[in-house]
Amino acid sequence: MKTQTSKNSKKSYSIIAATETLGQQKYIRHQKMRKRYIFWSRIILFAGFLLLWQAAATFGWIDKFYFSSPAEIGKLFIHDIKDRSLLNHIGITLFESGVSFLLIILFSLLTATFFWFYPSLGKLFEPFLIVLNSLPKSALAPLIIVWLGTGLRTIILCGMSVGIFGCILNLYQSFSQTDPERLKLIETLGGTKMQAFTKVVFPGNIPTFISLSKVNIGLALVGVIIGEFLAGRRGLGYLIIYGSQVFKLDMVILSIAILCVIAMLIYGILNVIEQKSAS
Amino acid sequence: MQCNPSNKSFLRLEHVSFSYYSVLGEVSVLNDINFHVEKGSFVALVGPSGCGKSTILSLISGLLKPVGGYITFYSDDFCAPKVGYMLQHDHLLEWRDVYHNIMLGLEIQKNKTPENLAFIDELLEKYKLSDTKNKKPSALSGGMRQRIALIRTLATRPDLLLLDEPFSALDYQTRLRISSDVRGIIKSEKKTAILVTHDISEAVSMADVVILLTKPPCTVKDIIPIEFEKNGINRDEIRTSKLFQEYFDKIWREMQDENTDI
Hints:
The complex is a heterodimer. By secondary structure, chain A is an all-alpha fold. Helices cover 85% and strands 0% of the residues of chain A. By secondary structure, chain B is α/β, with parallel strands linked by helices.
C-alpha cells in the first residue's frame, strides 16, 4: 500500500513540475518532507511497540505465558513455515474466503439481475432480505453446522452468510436507481429490456459492483473465520481457537498477525483494481 | 425496415387525448389535440410548463398509447417511419467514448453495417466533430455533448426527430449557438422535426411553425407559421429583426392569456 501512495504522489508532482515556481518548489518540498516524516514515524511507532513488548516479556514486566513475545512468535512462525503446516492453514483460509467471495458475488449478481428484470419479485423479497441482513450472521453458523456437518461446505456457507444479503440488497437497489431517462433513451432507440440491462444498467453500476466487492471480500474473511472457529479442523480461525484452548498464545497472536497482513494485502490489491477501473 | 426518404410523408394528430391515472383519480393531460406536420418542416410545441408537451412526443414515438384519437403517419409505402429522440440531457454514457456513444443506436437496432458506420464518420466529419471521436464524454463541453447526442440520433437515420427541450440544461450563450447549429444540421439532413420548448425565442428562432398549447388539459390554442425567409430576412439576422419581436410578442401575449385564465 505504501509503495502505491508514494508512486501516486510522484505522479502528481511531475504534473505540477511543468509550471514550477520557486514558491511552489518550496511547498512541494515541504509536502514531501511531511509525507516522509509520517511514513518513518509509523515504522518507528510499530518497531517501538514490538521492542517495548519484547523488553516487557524479557524483563518479566508481563507474563510471557499470557502475552507471548515477538521473538517467540517469530520463532514459531519460522518453525511452522519450515514444517509447512502454517502455509497449509493460510492456504485453506484463503481458499475458503476466495470461494465464499466468488459465490457471494456470483449469487448476488444473478439475484439482483433477476430482481431488476422482475421488479415485483424484488419487492416481494426485499423485506425478507432486509431482516436477514440485519441479523447477526454468526447466529446462523450453529444452524449451518447442524445441517451440513463440520466441513468445507459449512465454512464456505458461513463465509457467504455474512455478506450475501447486504450484497444482493445493495446491488438490486443500485440497479433500480439507474436514471430512468437513460432507460428512456434505450427505449426511444427501440431497445429491449435486455439491451437496457447490458448497455446501461450493468455498465453503469460497475463502480458500485467494485465497491461492493471490496466490502464483501472482507466480510467473506470474517465469515470464514467464524466458520473455522466453530467447525474448522484447519485454517487460521482453527489455529486461533485451538491455540487459545491449549494456551499457546504465540500461536493465537501469530494467526491474528497473519490475518492482519492478509487483510492489508487484500485492501491494497482492491485499491489498485478500483483505481485501474476508474481510469 | 427503412423507409424510402424520397417519400412525401407527414404526420397528423386527430382528436388525440391522454390521461394519467393515479390514486387520486384520472388526470386529463391532453384533450382533443389536432395538428399536422409536413414533411421536412420544423415544428415547435410551446406551452406552459407541465402542460403535457413531452407527453405528445411520447405518444408520437409510440412510447405511450393515446386514450382517444388517432396519430397517423402518411407515407407512400407501408412502413412506419423511424423516430429519433433527443432528450433534455445528452445521456452520453461516460464509460464509452464519443464514437461508441454514437454507435449505441445502431448497436441496439443491430444495424452496424459498413454503410451506417461510414455514415457516422461522414456526420462527424461534416459537423467538424471528428477530433472528439475517441474522447470520453466527460472531456467535452455541454454544447459539444448535445451536438454528439444529435449525431447519435441522426446515426440511426430517423425520418422524424423529436426534440424534448434539448437545450434547457445549457447556459444561455451555448444555447443560442447550439440551437442554431442543431437547426442547421436538421435542415441540411432534410429531417422533419418536432421541438418541445417553453422558451418562446428558441421556438421562433428555430421553427417553421409554432404550435401554441394551453395549460392542462392541454389543447392547441394557436398555430403560427414563422416566415422569415418569405419576408426576406437572412437566418443569421432573425434574432435582431423586427419580425422576430413581433412573433415573440404575439406568442407572449397569447401565453399570458393562458396564465391569467386560472
